[in-house]
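Here is one chain, start to finish.
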Amino acid sequence: MRVDIYRRAEHDGIFSYLAVPEGKPIPQEAVSTDWLQETAAFEVDDASNALPDYHIEHPLQQIAAKGYAITSLKDMEKVTGANI
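Its structure:
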């Protein structure tokens, strides 16, 4: 599956990421004016369990369940060392 990936600044130079199927709009519940496109048509292997560069776990399962995949808050805590 190919996805478009968006990023949003959090704090201290840290970003969260959102993946949506290629060419699809960001679903309404995730719409935010601060999402900026990071990359288009990123190929996600069907067997992929994570997108480590974007801190997204189970991307295809998330997309199947809600129409998008998003950075895990748990991973953001690891990156920042803070409780988010």
